[in-house]
Amino acid sequence: MAYQQLLCKWRLYFGFQPAMVIFLLFFFKIVAGQIRYSVPEEMKKGSLIGNVLKTDKGILVVNERIDREQLCGDVTPCSFSFEMILENPMELHHVTIEVLDVNDHPPVFKKSDIMLDISESANIGARFVLDSAEDPDVGVNGLQNYVLTSNDNFVLKQHVNPDGSKYAEIVLQKQLDREKVPSLSLKLIAVDGGNPQRSGTVNINIVVLDANDNAPVFNQSVYKATVIENAAKGTKIVTVNATDVDSGSNGYITYSISNVKSNIADLLSIDQVSGVLSVSGPIDFERDKKYELRIDAKDQGGLTDSSKVIIEVTDVNDNAPTISVMSFTSPVSEDSPPGTTIGIINVKDLDSSDNGQVNCRIEQNAPFKIKSNLRNYYTLVTDTVLDRESVSDYNITVVATDAGMPPLSTKRTFHLKVSDVNDNSPVFSQGVYSAFIAENNSPGVSLVTVRAKDPDENQNARISYILEDSDLDGSPVSQSVSVNAESGVIHAVRSFDYEQVKQLVFVVKAQDGGSSSSQVAM
């Protein structure tokens, strides 16, 4: 047929499911290259993403609702990729879809109320860290600012963490007087920058206490530590420490984790008395390479101080390489030249550094080799000329091994059949056949049977026997003898007279279903 057939196979990165889009391709020719589209999340099913081939048969459309937050969380930009494989000839194409954020989430506080106990002796400038709001949207659609309702005693200050997240604290600007105002009720509003703008609100309830005029103070503003992934539950990471010069209950400090994302809250915990931060859930380097959190130290009078903790996660070699078959061709003709491609595989390892560096090899001694022309992709090719008559099929085992200590390996076996070509001629068991016949024989009597063999298979090995044209005493040889084309049995066509003919010499040819043949003299 005049057209080329396209085989489109998906491979999505970052763990995304491939059911997000439908890829409709029916076309005659494709040009290899990088293809990239940008689409907003929440598009309706059937919405057009792009025309891949600039024809009416290469349209990329949405198959189901795309939720950027579900795909990528707070990672930006958010994209997923897949490959298209064109076979005959074999070509690889890389397609990337970038999902753009829309403002479909308001900022949300974890609790509806923030309870603060603040001493009336708190100094002007005393700071009180507030719970943060979370907005799964990103960029301008994410959390932008906090707003505090108007009051006489506190002003709002906003801060930005190194990861870009925002938190707020209230700062005392006018001395509290419990006897005049025993409590205050404020509202903290978190707003994003979307259009239309979305917001979330939390109540701040302040109870004014007596005579605790010193807040706790951490001995470090930033604590740095490391933790190995897969660390056992209860493993100690770091100990934070704060002191309070007050005495009695006003100097008694408790520790807590504040302003922490929900995923970190399930993985880390702190002893409220000792300040020991430890592992409480599964630490996975492939999910989070670093944790940043704030620890609050609070005395019994309600005064607080906070310190940042930065924890680096150390990778261990806990993921074996994975081998995915992009394309594999079997059988392959025995006359294929060395370097013929028989398959393409994709090899990945989720670990990092040496733990994620993968080497591929063919396990057994076989006439094949593996080479890499593109990162994470390997091509299986023939290394020598194949001979079906010597070996008709191969089990090719590919081994992918990472560079971790100890290394982890994965194997994948491919069964390859070698198809026959007519590269062998029929061969007679004898070069010359001799037979005797008494004169005055009956016509049709069997004289001798010739046999030839052909190591090829199927039609290439199907042998037929033919009597080669020649003359015997001026008459065609076919008037004297005949040969059965299938069995090779030679018969006398007529009766012979010894006084007239003492010897018959003729040639029988053996021919296979291909193009080569062999002959023998009689």
From TrEMBL:
GO CC annotations, alphabetized: plasma membrane
Molecular functions per Gene Ontology: calcium ion binding
Keyword Transmembrane helix: yes
Domain of life: Eukaryota
Keyword Cell membrane attached: yes
Pfam families found in the cross-reference section: Cadherin (PF00028), Cadherin_2 (PF08266)
Transmembrane segments: 12-32
Membrane-related topology note: Single-pass type I membrane protein
GO biological process, one term: anatomical structure morphogenesis
Cadherin domain residues: 33-109, 110-218, 219-323, 324-428, 429-522
InterPro entries: Cadherin-like_dom, Cadherin-like_sf, Cadherin_CS, Cadherin_N, Protocadherin/Cadherin-CA
Subcellular location: Cell membrane
Record keywords, A-Z: Calcium, Cell adhesion, Cell membrane, Glycoprotein, Membrane, Repeat, Signal, Transmembrane, Transmembrane helix
Protein name (database record): Cadherin domain-containing protein
